[in-house]
Amino acid sequence: MKFFILSCVALHCVQVTTKRKPRRRSKSQVHKSSVAAPSAQFLFFYTPWCPHCESAQPEIEKVKARHPSIEFLDVDVEKDPAMASFYQIKSVPTFVALMNGKEVDRRQGFVNASQLEQMAEKIHSAGPPLVGSVGPGRLALSA
Q1: Which residues fall within 8 angstroms of residue 75, CB to CB, at 6 or more apart?
Q2: Has residue 139 been placed in a domain?
Q3: How many domains does the chain have?
Q4: Within a domain: residue 109?
Q5: For site-directed labelling of 44, which of 12, 38, 78, 127 has its Cα 20 to 30 A away?
Q6: Distances (CA, A) of 137 to 20, 28, 66, 71
Q7: How far is residue 22's CA from residue 20's CA, in Å, rounded to a whole number?
Q8: What sign does the CA torsion over 56, 60, 62, 63 have?
Q9: What CATH number has the domain bearing residue 41?
Q10: Whole-structure pTM over 0.70, yes or no?
Q11: Closest by Cα among 28, 35, 140 to 83
Q12: Interatomic CA distance for residues 26 and 79, integer angstroms
């Protein structure tokens, strides 16, 4: 009798998990699933109502113009909670520098252009980029 009950419970769990609707993917998740994307990345986690996030935008644009080889991604944590969870974002603004899927630097709170420039330099000094990198929906490639 115990075997029958456990089998029914296990079967129910399988049925429940297979009947789920597919999750809608946000623009950043779709973008992150592209294997051919550059692996030198700078992630900016923000919310639209955050004044520090808004004031950081011009600073980011300055650094973005000087580093065309780095892919800059803006991630709205309210619209893309999966990305925020994956990178363990606890507050906004948060800046994460990645090279080949590995975090090389992280800053929280408002930062100026020189601090962002330091993060970009850490990305460049972390090594040559691979073809792909690691993240939600991304393939993991080894060097």
Answers
A1: 28, 43, 44, 45, 46, 83, 84
A2: no
A3: 1
A4: yes
A5: 127
A6: 18, 10, 29, 17
A7: 6
A8: positive
A9: 3.40.30.10
A10: no
A11: 28
A12: 7
